[in-house]
Amino acid sequence: TKKQRVPVVDRTPLEPPPYIVGIFGPPQVGKSTLIRALVKDASFQRVNNLNGPITLVTAKKRRVTYIECANDINCMIDLAKVVDLALLLIDASFGFEMETFEFINIA
Q1: CA neighbor of 84 nearest in space, from 8, 5, 3, 17
Q2: Burial label, 50 (beta-carbon count in 10 A; 0-12, 13-18, 19+)
Q3: What HEC string does 42-74 produce?
Q4: Do residues 30 and 89 lie in contact, with contact meaning Cβ atoms separated by under 8 Å?
Q5: For a Cys-Cys bond, which of 29, 34, 58, 60 suits 25, CB 3.0-4.6 Å?
Q6: How far apart are CA 67 and CA 84, in angstroms?
Q7: Residue 14: what pLDDT?
Q8: CA–CA separation, 71 vs 68, rounded Å?
Q9: Which of 53, 77, 66 is nearest to 23 (CA)?
């Protein structure tokens, strides 16, 4: 007549998930250049080609993942749903484009 208890399992991960930073913008505004500069500043290593997301360890238990977004409104919507921080790059010499306004309205 003693009450039985189910053991509680601690399911928290050992490391927290990385911060996800999405870099948005039209072509030729410097998205890849910004990612290369951030990687070089944090890890003192060069990145020649960007194929997919790049994850950096910034502290003992903190990671940051950089994802470059293509100039497609569907890609922007999908990536904006999962990122923690969205960086929108704009070419100041060219001005705003239609995709820029669409992304600002969505995000």
Answers
A1: 17
A2: middle
A3: HHCCCCCCCCCCEEEEEECCEEEEEEECCCCHH
A4: yes
A5: 29
A6: 11
A7: 81
A8: 10
A9: 66
DSSP-derived 3-state class of residue 79? helix
pLDDT, tens digit (0-9, with 9 covering 90-100), for 58-91: 888 899 999 999 888 888 889 999 999 999 888 8
Strand partners, 78: none
- Phi/psi of residue 25, nearest 5 degrees: 150, 165
Residues 101 and 41: beta-carbon distance below 8 Å = no
pLDDT band at 1 (very low <50, low <70, confident <90, very high): low
